[in-house]
Amino acid sequence: MFGLTEQNLHRDLKKKGVGLSYLKHSRNFIVRFRNIDKRGVLKSLVYENRRKNNGKRVIDKIISGGQTGADRAGLDLALARGIPHGGAIPWGRRTEAGILPDKYQLVEMETDSYPARSEKNILDADVTVIFTHGKLAGGSLFTRSKARQHNKPVLHIDLDKRGLSEAALILSLFLRKNRVKVVNVAGTRASKDPAIYRKTYAVLDLCLERRGVQLDLFFPE
Description:
Layout: H1 6-14, E1 18-19, E2 29-36, E3 41-49, E4 61-63, H2 70-81, E5 85-86, E6 88-89, E7 94-95, E8 98-99, E9 107-108, H3 114-124, E10 127-132, H4 138-149, E11 154-158, H5 164-177, E12 182-187, H6 196-208, E13 213-215
Parallel strand pairs: 4-5, 4-12, 6-9, 10-11, 10-12
Antiparallel strand pairs: 1-3, 2-3, 3-13, 7-8
Helix pairs in contact: 2-6, 3-4, 5-6
């Protein structure tokens, strides 16, 4: 058994083939090897969190702006898992699909400005996670810029470049590194990316699983 340190995570993930010597020991994370070829190159692995949650939530609250797509996936995941949720939403509870249903416990702002809504959610959260397929644009780009402006940790997950399990691993370590209690989930709206809801939900769900995350064929040739 070997472990991935948070510091070396991104370096290791970028390698197309990772030799065993690149992976470091860690008290908090376990990597169980699968499919190691004759040259000792890792082809797939299982990530496990060594720390036990003892019934505690990984995060205390999920917030978002309530828009269709990535925002809504975060809220629905929170409802499904019994995690408190919330967030700021423009006056009138406006979304591109109409008025946001009352089951979503978001706070209506006095302004109908989407940028103002996005900035408030950034400030109210410990970190912001942005889900897209491809490069940031529009509201997602604005969100990252504002997070950086306010010196708030922000993670962009490009699902064109990351598989679901790989994205869940990166997100899990990002949350632990920043000792997160409140997560702001943002990203592309459904009208621009019909697949973003399903994939955002899946990544968040995998991230919060207590079992290991299987990373099949994680390091291709």
